[in-house]
Design a protein that fits this description.
Layout lengths: L1 E7 L6 H4 L2 H8 L3 E7 L12 E2 L9 E2 L1 H14 L4 E11 L2 H9 L4 E4 L16 E4 L9 H12 L10 H4 L19 E2 L2 E2 L2 H4 L3 H19 L2
Parallel strand pairs: 1-2, 1-6, 5-6, 5-7
Antiparallel strand pairs: 3-4, 8-9
Helix pairs in contact: 4-5
The protein binds S-adenosyl-L-homocysteine.
S-adenosyl-L-homocysteine (SAH) binds next to strand 5.
EC number: 2.1.1.228
Organism: Candidatus Nanosynbacter lyticus
Protein name: tRNA (guanine-N(1)-)-methyltransferase
Length: about 220
């Protein structure tokens, strides 16, 4: 079974995401295993220290290399072939095509979540890839890891109901946005569902959707 392990100082941050809706169902159905590794357990000394001030000066704290190293080794012992990924604003930008690649792969992933000013650079010795969710800075890697896991897991066959729903949605080809969709009622506060969608004419519906997709993609992508 596919494993995703998240190394974090704040394991509780993952519970809302892992224990609800599709992420919960994917685990219940035995498709994925989503776990956390509590960095604190690998902290040093009686205070279980995990962070310290940076050499050379500067504000804030860095996650120390030794607790992170031990946590990665522990996670590897749970899944020897897993890929080790550091959450980092420096990393490769996350995209739907990347999520699809990961969904198609059968290697597990170990996500290292930085905190404070980040991590001691030496942990890169154990890191296979660095991934970023965009050009902005979070207080920690947890939200980034959750977004990535959510976007990968929903693409693993068997997780979503209709497999086609993931095939033709936004960015599935790398760029195109999805067309507008409607459900009951036909009219709400005077707002009507476009006639073509009620027509039952599959050819016209497909054409309308393709046009809308093209128009939205042109309008909304830089
Ligand atoms: N001092 C660092 C930022 C540290 S933010 C810098 O200037 O680059 C603390 C942690 O949050 C990082 O170690 C990383 O794990 C995570 N993080 C912050 N922004 C992120 C982003 N855009 N994508 C992925 N992880 C991010």
């Amino acid at each position: 079974m596919r494993k995703f392990q998240v190394i974090t100082l704040f394991p509780e941050m993952t519970t809302g995401v892992f224990n609800n809706s599709m992420m919960w169902k994917a685990q219940k159905d035995g498709i994925v295993e989503l776990t956390t590794v509590n960095l604190r357990e690998f902290g040093l000394g009686s205070r279980r220290q995990v962070d310290d001030t940076p050499y050379g000066g500067g504000d804030g704290m860095l996650l120390m290399v030794e607790p992170l190293w031990k946590a990665v080794e522990f996670a590897k012992s749970q899944d020897e072939t897993a890929k080790v990924v550091l959450m980092s604003p420096r990393g490769q930008r996350w995209r739907q095509t990347k999520a699809q690649e990961e969904a198609d792969d059968d290697r597990g992933v170990i996500f290292i979540c930085g905190r404070y000013e980040g991590v001691d650079e030496r942990i890169l010795e154990l890191v296979d890839e660095q991934w970023s969710i965009g050009d902005f800075v979070l207080t920690g890697g947890e939200l980034a890891a959750m977004m990535m896991i959510d976007s990968i897991v929903r693409l693993i066959p068997g997780v979503l109901g209709g497999e086609k729903s993931a095939e033709i949605e936004s960015f599935s080809d790398g760029e195109t946005l999805e067309f507008p969709q409607y459900t009951r009622p036909e009219e709400f506060k005077g707002l009507r569902v476009p006639d073509v969608l009620l027509s039952g004419h599959h050819g016209n519906i497909a054409r309308w959707r393709a046009e809308q997709s093209q128009m939205l993609t042109k309008k909304n992508t830089p």
